[in-house]
From TrEMBL:
This is PAP2 superfamily protein. It comes from the Bacteria. PANTHER family: AT30094P, SPHINGOSINE-1-PHOSPHATE PHOSPHOHYDROLASE. Residues 138-252 form the Phosphatidic acid phosphatase type 2/haloperoxidase domain. It holds the Pfam family PAP2.
């Protein structure tokens, strides 16, 4: 079941998403912003970034290329198998309130509270210590999770799938048409989409095998926990993890100063303030 705190968080995120999208259309899309431009004292800029992200995400299917088939085809196959296997998987899993409660707690802390707290701590600690990479990672992770929540909510309303613990347990789509819409929010999994967006950002910002192992292990654990808690079908977490990973990558490519070829910033010199042009040879 969805707690009142989660319900309020989702509705607030959807509301903010509409505001952010409106602000992006108001200010235009010509300016390129990065994590350095967003902060606690520049919330309007942060809102503009989210709005630009949403427009870019919504229109991304128009920019697909043949190489995208490398992930689209496997995703389609996984979805087909998942939808066919969903009901059988949940019947095999069975009902165990004690187990479900434990895994729900794991997924709540690992998929929502933990990543959100980590992003906030990273931002404030990085800002306080002058660690720009840590600060920017906090901003990007938070941005990706807000983006993921907005996309998740839109997809839930559009797909309207019953959860494993409602209806006849088979995960029907639009079971009663518009009469009782929305009937469920099973697809995609918000926790899964959120944590995979977070994981991709952190893994990209701190590109080492230990970091990747840690964050992707967390994301995988949360994904499995959502099924074990009987909050989602296997295909729900496939959709959530795929979209979360893609959203995290989208944010990193468009916002991370470390991932750009060039960066322009102001510096203090003996003769006053000046401009510094940097080139990233690691790209």
């Amino acid at each position: 079941m969805v707690s009142s705190m989660e319900f309020m968080f989702r509705r607030l995120s959807l509301f903010l998403g509409l505001i952010f999208l409106s602000s992006s259309l108001l200010y235009g899309q010509s300016e390129t912003l990065s994590a350095e431009d967003c902060g606690i004292t520049a919330l309007v800029t942060c809102a503009k970034m989210i709005g630009q992200d949403q427009l870019g995400i919504v229109t991304s299917p128009l920019r697909t290329t043949p190489k995208d088939l490398l992930w689209i085809v496997p995703f389609g196959v996984a979805m087909g198998l998942g939808l066919d296997y969903d009901a059988h998987a949940m019947r095999t899993l069975g009902v165990d309130p004690s187990r479900e409660n434990k895994f729900k707690k794991v997924s709540d802390y690992g998929g929502l509270y933990g990543p959100a707290a980590s992003a906030a701590i990273g931002y404030f600690l990085g800002a306080k210590t002058g660690n720009s990479q840590l600060r920017d990672t906090g901003v990007l992770a938070g941005e990706a999770m807000v983006d993921a929540t907005i996309v998740d909510q839109a997809m839930k309303y559009a797909i309207d799938r019953e959860r494993p613990n409602t209806g006849d347990g088979t995960g029907r789509f639009w079971p009663h048409g518009l009469k009782t819409w929305p009937d469920g929010g099973s697809m995609p999994s918000e926790h899964t989409m959120n944590v995979w967006a977070f994981a991709h950002v952190v893994a990209a910002q701190y590109d080492g095998w230990r970091t990747r192992l840690a964050v992707y292990s967390l994301a995988t654990t949360v994904s499995a926990s959502r099924v074990m808690a009987r909050d989602h079908f296997p295909s729900d977490v496939v959709v959530g993890s795929t979209f979360g990973y893609l959203i995290g990558g989208f944010v990193v490519r468009h916002r991370s100063p470390e991932k750009r070829y060039f960066s322009l910033s102001t510096v203090n010199t003996a003769n006053g303030r000046g401009l510094q042009l940097s080139y990233n040879f690691a790209r």
